[in-house]
Write a structure and sequence with these properties.
There is one protein chain. The chain is globular. Helix content is 2%, strand content 32%. It is built from one helix and twelve strands, in the order ββββββαββββββ. By secondary structure, the protein is an all-beta fold. The strands form four sheets. It has a six-stranded antiparallel barrel. Strands 1-4 form a two-stranded antiparallel ribbon. A two-stranded antiparallel ribbon has the order 2-3. The longest helix is centred in the middle third of the chain and has 4 residues.
Length: 160
């Protein structure tokens, strides 16, 4: 998966010596480390947030990252970063939660999956680990969604 850094003047633009805006930064390469296996296949019927009735799902990781998974444990929460590969990248303003009764709001003040860089951030609970497969709850990502990273949830006072 290749993510371009030069999507117009919205990202990574900087003045040049001649005063022109340079948007020709090289592309950034993101390499998925796995995929989501979920019964959720239709964005229109999927929960908007993981804690709003999402079914349990499997995170299926690539063999090359096995060592990175070794300290995950059943019962802990982790932050899962995904790539919303079916989202629109040209959206900057939305009605929160698709509710036309709510005022238009900039995407950076919402959890909309439609945004210039559609990175999903999900706090999920691990319920089972089977080698390269990790079953989680509270994940609203669709089946096949690329996984970018997994990070621990840190306790503010003790885990820094």
């Amino acid at each position: 998966m290749l993510v371009r850094a030069d999507r117009g003047k919205l990202m990574n633009s900087k003045p040049t010596l001649a005063g022109h805006v340079d948007t020709a930064d090289p592309p950034y390469a993101l390499h998925p480390i796995g995929r989501v296996e979920s019964p959720l296949v239709d964005r229109a019927t999927a929960p908007r947030q993981g804690d709003e009735g999402s079914p349990e799902a499997w995170l299926v990781f690539e063999p090359e990252i096995r060592e990175g998974l070794r300290d995950l444990e059943v019962g802990i929460d982790v932050l899962l970063l995904t790539w919303f590969d079916r989202s629109s990248r040209d959206v900057l303003v939305v009605h929160p939660r698709g509710d036309l009764g709510r005022p238009p709001t900039g995407v950076f003040s919402t959890r909309s999956p439609d945004r210039p860089n559609p990175i999903g951030l999900h706090r999920v609970s691990i319920v089972e680990i089977d080698d390269l497969r990790v079953r989680v709850r509270d994940l609203e990502a669709l089946d096949g969604t690329p996984i970018l990273d997994v990070k621990p949830v840190l306790d503010r006072d003790t885990e820094r």
